[in-house]
Amino acid sequence: QVQMVESGGGLVQAGGSLRLSCAASGFTFSSYAMSWYRQAPGSERELVASISSAGCSTNYANSVKGRFTISRDNTKNTVYLQMNSLKPEDTAVYYCYTWIGRVNYWGKGTLVTVSS
Questions:
Q1: 12 FRET partner, CA 20 to 30 A, in 33, 68, 82, 85?
Q2: Smallest Cα–Cα separation from 59: which of 35, 89, 87?
Q3: What angle do CA 45, 2, 9 make, to 5 degrees?
């Protein structure tokens, strides 16, 4: 079955960097777009970044443009989120997401905490 496991979260000071990874299995990874979402306490889940199946096209939320970079390695079935210049408002649980056959699939998330 479809599985996605996020890793790389943690506690970092403002201005620091983290790289999140999402290891996927159970589907043909290279055929599907992938996304990162995040959910801060008391807030709705929001789209952070997306990448096309081949990695040629990306898009970002305005709040992270110029600071975050999404990428993927289809040989490793893994999607990444490089996060630089982190701000306290980036604190959230970050989720890996894909959509296959009209079904939404989510990882369990990884917590990122940015201290001021």
A1: 33
A2: 35
A3: 45
Helix (H) or strand (E) holding 104: strand 103-106
**pLDDT truncated to tens, each residue of the chain (116 aa)?**
999 999 999 999 999 999 999 999 999 999 999 999 999 999 999 999 999 999 999 999 999 999 999 999 999 999 999 999 999 999 999 999 999 989 999 999 999 999 99
DSSP, collapsed to helix, strand or coil, labels residue 93 as strand
Instruction: Please check whether residue 97 is in contact with residue 36, taking contact to mean a CB–CB distance below 8 angstroms.
Output: yes
d(CA 48, CA 58): 11
SS3 content of the chain, % helix, strand, coil (to 5): 5, 55, 40
